[in-house]
């Protein structure tokens, strides 16, 4: 056994992915979540589908054989971020009671990342944010879709707990940015969820992020 004098604890990376094609409510509240996490000492990265070239998974199974995706588009940079992150926040606008098509495409394209390394997402901590134009427009359904993605990939899904954030952070945007900024209940659910998320990162965050020499 090798015992050395110094331990270096690397800062854990939290990756926030915005599933909105606009720079509006979803991106705003995700940015606020990342700001809180930065204050708690995490390194944060924001990645958005906005303006990105993201093809659909066509189930060609190229990735199962070649261990990489056949599509050379903007998912390539996201694969790197996903690998490096210990915590992942998927934030989505609610589209027809679920996640946006753009975010769903990202989820499906993660098949190639998992085909390349079956443990790529395993043990990472995940939380969700859903922003709907209506007060009860399907935010919780969208969050359950996000949590299902986490569970399927061996991740640890985190909610904000009872009394306001039962399955995660939910916002009512009334379809615009200024209204979401006024959504006090939404921000309460966000703070509760981020608090749990940070606790889980500290308690169970991937040990790959902590190295000793
Ligand atoms: C195609 C489409 C479907 C939508 N479906 C819903 C819905 O089912 N429930 C809801 O509450 N809002 C729905 N909305 C409204 C958006 O969720 C809402 O405006 C949200 O704030 C958009 O996020 P963004 O501002 O980040 O783009 C829909 C919007 C679009 C464009």
SSE topology sketch:
Blueprint: E1 7-9, E2 13-18, H1 25-39, E3 43-48, H2 62-66, H3 75-84, E4 87-93, H4 101-116, E5 125-132, H5 139-152, E6 156-157, E7 169-172, H6 177-181, H7 184-204, E8 210-212
Parallel strand pairs: 2-3, 2-4, 4-5, 5-6, 5-7
Antiparallel strand pairs: 1-8
Helix pairs in contact: 1-7
This protein binds flavin mononucleotide.
Task: Describe what you observe in this structure.
The chain has 213 residues and is of the alpha/beta class. It has one domain (14-49, 56-203): Rossmann fold. Helix content is 40%, strand content 18%. The chain has seven helices and eight strands; from the N terminus they run E-E-H-E-H-H-E-H-E-H-E-E-H-H-E. It has helices at residues 25-39, 62-66, 75-84, 101-116, 139-152, 177-181, 184-204; strands spanning 7-9, 13-18, 43-48, 87-93, 125-132, 156-157, 169-172, 210-212. Strands 2, 3, 4, 5, 6 and 7 form a six-stranded parallel beta sheet that branches. A two-stranded antiparallel ribbon has the order 1-8. Strand 5, helix 5 (139-152) and strand 6 (156-157) form a beta-alpha-beta unit. Helix 1 (25-39) packs across helix 7 (184-204). The radius of gyration is 17 Å and the shape is globular. The model is unreliable at 209-213 (pLDDT under 50). Residues 20, 22, 24-27, 93-97, 131-134, 137-138, 173, 175 line the site of flavin mononucleotide.
């Amino acid at each position: 056994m090798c015992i050395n004098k110094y331990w270096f604890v690397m800062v854990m990376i939290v990756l926030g992915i915005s599933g909105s094609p606009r720079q509006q409510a979803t991106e705003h509240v995700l940015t606020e979540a990342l700001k809180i996490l930065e204050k708690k000492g995490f390194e944060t990265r924001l990645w958005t589908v906005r303006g990105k070239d993201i093809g659909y998974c066509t189930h060609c199974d190229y990735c199962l054989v070649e261990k990489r995706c056949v599509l050379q588009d903007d998912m390539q940079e996201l694969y790197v971020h996903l690998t490096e992150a210990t915590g992942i926040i998927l934030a989505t606008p609610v589209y027809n009671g679920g996640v946006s098509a753009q975010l769903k495409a990202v989820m499906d394209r993660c098949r190639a990342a998992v085909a390349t390394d079956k443990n790529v997402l395993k043990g990472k901590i995940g939380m969700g944010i859903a922003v709907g134009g209506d007060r009860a427009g399907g935010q919780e359904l969208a969050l359950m879709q996000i949590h299902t993605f986490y569970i399927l990939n061996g991740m640890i899904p985190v909610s904000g707990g009872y009394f306001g954030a039962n399955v995660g952070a939910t916002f009512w945007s009334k379809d615009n940015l200024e209204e979401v900024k006024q959504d006090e209940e939404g921000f309460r659910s966000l703070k509760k969820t981020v608090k749990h998320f940070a606790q889980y990162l500290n308690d169970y965050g991937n040990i790959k992020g902590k190295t000793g020499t």
